[in-house]
Write a structure and sequence with these properties.
Layout lengths: L4 H12 L12 H4 L7 E6 L4 E5 L5 E2 L4 H13 L1 H5 L28 H8 L9 H16 L7 H9 L2 H12 L7 H12 L2 E2 L1 H12 L14 H14 L5 H7 L4 E3 L4 E6 L3 E6 L10 H13 L16 E6 L3 E7 L4 H13 L6 E8 L5 H16 L3 E5 L34
Helix pairs in contact: 1-13, 3-11, 5-8, 5-9, 6-9, 7-9, 8-9, 14-15
The structure holds glutamine.
Family: Belongs to the glutaminase family.
EC number: 3.5.1.2
GO molecular function: glutaminase activity
Length: 426
């Protein structure tokens, strides 16, 4: 059986492909020349399973999506008190590049440009040279992505040639002793940070690292403390979408960060990271098709953070028993998107050739809408692959057993599948 998640992601892309509003960022030629039709999405579970659809290998500059990660690095290196000395944690309700500082001259949060420039200056110590700071950032972002990332020198150079606004922010910050470097050097390392090249899979994995309490889920590398991730995600949820942050949390409910190259990253704590790419932007500088794709991810996959239908529990596969022609997979706990993802991933790896497969949901108290849909699609795919399928559901938890092809999954008695074989899960 092949897990249907890449197909679901592909469907989301097709649903937003006709959305051709918005314009690519035009303030530098490198971004103005971007192909407006590129479109991609990727998702990474907190266990490190990565799925994608569309132009997933297309690289682009990370831009403002770097900001929460650099904030996390500053918290990790210096602790909250030192970081709070230079930047607040309140939503600004203003555009990302607003020429504003808070009442005490600190930028109000680390995700607007003023705050991001101030935070960048903390990395590797305030006395660090620009070169050493940039090297530290390259190494850190490469660890987060789990591969060596490069910097788009063309983007970095032209950002610098069109940086009057960011330079004015840096001058204000230096005037009020928030930063030590001169304005040009401060903007030099900030634009370097924004010019790191990534693809959507990198962003999904980086985001899943935040979701996973700082352990990169693919490499297993422990990069950040769980407390740092919690703080970063909290700030992302209130400030990540700038002047649209409140409406975003209400409508989409996935802490997120956008970048002007067209990337959009979202994190569900404890569950997963997700990212989209499409370069046409709305007036707030957020990807038009990315925003639409996130709305679908939130509604169709049940990923709204405030959803009361989103409990996460123990591993959803309690055990698996099998002999030559039977397999029974015993599930447990509430089945939502993340639980169903884990089940489908395991099923994909099992060797179930032409045997009778039953999913035992007698220990499953509930399935949410997306969990039910995904489990049923897994069963349909198993049957398509030549298996006979059934569910063991003595309490009728799977209220609707009709599959997408109109057939109904048969019920089985636990006795019919009684196997004395050994339990193959650890
Ligand atoms: N490099 C861009 C800037 O500083 C990043 C802004 C963004 O992605 N929103 O203006």
């Amino acid at each position: 059986m092949k897990t249907p998640i890449p197909y679901y992601l592909g469907q989301i892309l097709e649903s937003v492909r006709d959305e051709d509003g918005g314009e690519v960022a035009e303030y530098i030629p490198e971004l103005a020349n971007a192909d407006p039709d590129k479109l991609a999405v990727a998702l990474c579970s907190s266990t490190g399973h990565v799925y994608s659809a569309g132009d997933a290998e297309h690289e682009f500059s990370i831009q403002s999506i770097s900001k929460p990660f650099v904030y996390a690095l500053a918290l990790q290196e210096l602790g909250l008190d030192a970081v709070r000395d230079v930047v607040g944690m309140e939503p600004s309700g203003e555009a990302f590049n607003e020429l504003s500082l808070g009442r005490d001259y600190r930028p109000v949060n680390p995700l607007i440009n003023a705050g991001a420039i101030a935070v960048n200056q903390l990395i590797n110590g305030v006395d660090s040279s620009v070169e050493d700071r940039n090297a530290r950032l390259n190494e850190y972002f490469s660890r987060l992505a789990g591969r060596d990332l490069s910097v788009d020198a063309g983007v970095a150079d032209s950002e610098l040639n069109h940086a009057d606004r960011n330079l004015s922010l840096a001058h204000m910050l230096r005037n009020y002793d928030i930063i030590k470097d001169d304005a040009h050097d401060a903007v030099l390392s900030y634009t370097h940070q924004c010019a790191i090249r990534v693809d959507v899979r990198d962003l999904a994995v980086m985001s899943a690292t935040l979701a996973n309490g700082g352990r990169q889920p693919v490499t297993g590398d422990k990069i950040l403390d769980a407390d740092v991730c919690r703080l970063t995600l909290a700030v992302m949820s209130s400030c990540g979408m700038y002047d649209g942050a409140g409406r975003w949390m209400a409508e989409v409910g996935i802490p997120a960060k956008s970048g002007v190259a067209g990337g959009l990253l979202g994190t569900l704590p404890g569950q997963l990271g997700v990212a989209t790419f499409s370069p046409r932007l709305n007036e707030s500088g957020n990807s038009v098709r990315g925003v639409e794709a996130f709305k679908l991810l939130s509604s169709d996959m049940g990923l709204h953070l405030m959803s009361t239908d989103n409990r996460v529990g123990t591993h959803p596969i309690r055990s698996k028993e099998e002999d030559e022609d039977h397999a029974v997979i015993h599930l447990q706990g509430h089945i939502n998107f993340s639980a169903a993802e884990a089940i489908l991933y395991e099923l994909q790896g099992y060797d179930l050739d032409a045997c009778r497969v039953a999913l035992d949901i007698s220990q499953v108290p509930s399935l949410n809408r997306v969990g039910r849909r995904m489990l049923k699609e897994g069963l349909r795919r198993l049957r398509e692959g030549g298996n006979e399928i059934a569910v063991i559901d003595p309490d009728g938890t799977l209220t609707d057993r009709e599959l997408s092809d109109g057939t109904v999954v048969p019920l089985a008695d636990a006795e019919d599948y009684h196997i004395n074989g050994e339990d193959v899960r650890d």
